[in-house]
Amino acid sequence: MQIMVTLPAAARLRGRNVLSVTDLGADELAGLLTLAQNVKERGREQLSLLRGKTLVMLFEKPSLRTRVSFEAGMTQLGGHAIAATGADFGIGTRETPEDAARVLSRYGDAIVYRTHAHEPLARFASAATVPTINALSEAGHPCQAFADLLTIRERFGTLQGLRLAFVGDARNNVAISLAEAAVMSGMSITFAAPVTHRPPDAFLGKLVKLGAPHNVTARAFTSPLRAVRDVDVVYTDVWTSMGDEQFVERNQAALRPYQVNAELMAAAAPHALFMHCLPAHRGEEVTADVMDGARSVVFDQAENRLHAQKALLLALLTDLRGLTD
Predict the structure, then answer these.
(1) Strand 132-134 and strand 110-114: pairing?
(2) Which residues of 210-233 are buried (b: 16+ CB within 10 A; e: fewer)?
(3) Which of 77, 232, 312, 319 has the greatest CB tally within 10 Å of its CB?
């Protein structure tokens, strides 16, 4: 199999923490996506690459795709994964993030941590002596963004010059990481959200800076039709994130005009994809006909969590020689 020239960039990730998309350079992100595609094409051929390695997974929030994809990925690579929930470890109550990180670093070769506030995660990662991966915090969801870009690149063959619209709560962690990864890869982005849920101007400015080598644009509109006009990808997420359930009624009232339905998809380019990170609330942020329609790639996204995370584990824990022979 031909090895892509961007693999050396991914090899530079060995031993590092990945708490946000911007912990990677643009070339490292591209290399990671190429590695993920390589891993996906090889199936389970590389079973022995993480033999003897242990992944420790900590979940303070519920997890389906993240937990199962990391555990399955580690198993397929020949390693082992251990999962614990918040009630099991009590970081921040029973012991400090720093103390927990120092202990767990002596048990595992890498740590995956899903949490609420980002600051304790940053403290944890700073004290850990093995790579720490953000499996979701209030500040971002980088693992989801890696899988999303892998999915888009598979469909279009490139990310350069594409246009993506995020519709709904444009301040949530999925939107943040997706936008960062998109502009770093040469995609322009628009957000469709009411004023109460639009990203701050400072964040839009940050996106333009991140995408400056590609001359990308990053804009927010209150009109969903204007935001999705002729875009290549329409993306949405639940209107209320985990931990914010007290805002369900407020968010439903504010975001109801931002439902992704057949009418809204008709404003996008004819070839446009529909994406959702799941879980989805059919009939709220997206209608069932769009979710299950021919333009939907939501289950490809879900599958690609496995491949993107296998690539991330390989990049953090090996020199990738097994993929470049």
Answers:
(1) parallel
(2) bbeebebebebbeebeebbeebbb
(3) 312
Q: Two tokens at 258? A: 């931002």
- The two tokens of residue 317 are 């824990």
Give the pLDDT score at 241: 82
- Whether 142 has a binding-site annotation, put simply, is yes
Residue 260 in contact with residue 290, Cβ under 8 Å? yes
Question: H/E element holding 57?
Answer: strand 54-59
Q: Which two tokens stand for residue 91?
A: 């970081």
242-275 pLDDT, tens per residue? 777 888 899 999 999 999 999 999 999 999 999 9
- Identify which of 11, 128, 107, 129 has the alpha carbon closest to the alpha carbon of residue 53: 107
Bridge partners (DSSP) of residue 303 are none
Structure tokens at 197: 């849920």
- Give which of 43, 35, 83 is closest to 320, Cα–Cα: 35
Q: What is the pLDDT of residues 58-116, one digit of tens each?
A: 999 999 999 999 999 999 999 999 999 988 888 989 999 999 999 999 999 999 999 99
> Residue 4, annotated ligand binder?
no
* Cα distance between residue 212 and residue 216, in whole Å: 6
Q: Which residues are catalytic?
A: 114, 141, 144, 237, 277, 305
126 annotated ligand-binding residue:
no
Q: At what angle do helices 26-42 and 298-317 cross, to 10 degrees?
A: 110
